[in-house]
Structure formats: structure tokens, C-alpha cells
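User: My instructor asked us to take a sequence, write out its structure as C-alpha cells, and then describe one feature of it. I'm not sure where to start. Here is the sequence I was given:
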Amino acid sequence: MIELTPELKAGILVEALPYIQEYYGKIVVIKYGGNAMINEELKQAVISDLVLLNLVGIKVVLVHGGGPEISELLKKTGKESRFVKGLRYTDEETMDIVQMVLGGKVNKNLVNLFKNAGGKAVGLSGMDGGLFEAVKLVDPDGTDYGYVGDIVKTNPQIVLDVLEHGYIPVVSSVAAGVDDASSYNVNADTAAEKLAVALKAKKLILLTDVCGLMEDPKDVSTLIPQLKVSQVPALIREGIISGGMIPKVNCCVEAVRQGVERANIQDGRVPHSILIELLSNDGVGTMFL
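Assistant: Let's start with the prediction itself. The C-alpha cells for your sequence are:
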């Protein structure tokens, strides 16, 4: 580790000051998943970043998935993970496991990590307080995903109440069904986007396993640091935005179009990438504005 002089440490804090002032009292929604959720060192970095932001008066909300943990438990029960167009096919038995893993094990483990880091967090399911309401997701071509939901309404009051008391809300990506009595597995990126819009958040951050949007996915030097949402359709037509990046980009575009000031896709594999993005001149990933 590089030894920093006291002067350099002070300089870092001074650099952060205008950003702390800009975000003070504002809401930042962070979608947490991928490698940053599996690697213990990265996990600790994310938790400590959010505790620090909370302590300096920035209202952070964490939305999480838990795909690897769901796959692991399915394997233990002798059930095979199945994916349709990139989404986990969720039958009734799988939905029970999704709800148990996301709303139970993963959610409460994260809350405990915040406590161990000196922070205060409250675990919420997307079903608590009617936070996320969804209907069954069915493609126009009739593709069936099982109990995978499309969020049609967000009721953010329970999250606002938790924030008001100084806690960090930790939200799992499941939703209550409004078309029948079932619960639904929902995409965590989409859940974060919908929540950011409902909370009138200043910023949405999607942590991923790539450094951001690149003109050439194999060349990190082609990273696009900033993008206006009006430029996105052309990049999709040109094939620069393709595959699994399209839904992530669409989440950012929708968030910005509906009032979120900025949205970021950034590399969760970089330790403390959240602090670098929010509190430094450098920034990371691709920002949509």
C-alpha cells in the first residue's frame, strides 16, 4: 500500500468537500451485484463507502440481487438454474428460494455488515410496505419467464421513512404481484431505476463487472465517460451498445428521462469505486445525463 503524506491526505479531503456539499441531503441509489457482491474485499469496500457517505449526510439506498446465492441453493436442492433471454426462469419452487435468499440470507447479511462497519441499516423486501408492485412479465412474442415480474408501481414511503431516521435502506429485488396473489422475482437494475425515479434521487449507480460502456468491449481505452441519453439510440443501431448492456443502458436512460439528474454504469470490481465517482474529480465508468 502507498504511504500518503498528511498533506496529501488533507488534499484528498479538500477535493471531496465540494462534492459532499453537492450531495449533502440528496438521495443516491446504488444497485449492488456481480463480483462486488461475491469478493469479500470488494464487499467490505462497498459497505465502508456507503457508511462514509451516510455519515457525511448523503442519503444512500442499496438495491441488491443475489444470483450466485440463488443458483447455489438451487444446486443444493437438486434443482437446475435455467435462463431464458438472460432472465432466470422462475417457477413456483424457484420463487420460494428466490424470496428466501434475497429477502432473508443476502439481505440480512448485508445489514449485519453495515452494523460491523459502524453503520446503521434496515433490510427491506420489495414487498414491504407495497414498495414494488408488479405483474407477470410476458414478452410480445409470448415468451414465458414464470414468476418474473414487471414493476408497474413503486411506493417509496417506507424507504423515505427509513432514510428520515438516518438508516441505510437495503432493498431486495422481489415484488408483490397485483395481477394475482403471487410474489415476483424482478431484475435488480430495473428495481433500482424505478426506486431512484420514485425517490427523486440525484444519482443512480449500477455496479457491474465491466468498466462501463466501451466502443470496443475488449478495449478499456475506448471507455465512453459521458453520454447524453439522446445519443443512445444511434449507438444501439451501430451495435456499440449490445447484448446484456442494452437493458442496463435503458435503465439509466429511463432514470434520467424521468428526473434523476445523472446515472452511472461503473465497475464494481474497483475498490471504493463509489467514493471515486461521487467524491473526486476523476469519476469512473460511464455517466448518462
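For the description part of your assignment, you could build on this observation: The CA atoms of residues 15 and 281 lie 7 Å apart. Try explaining in your own words what that tells you about the chain.
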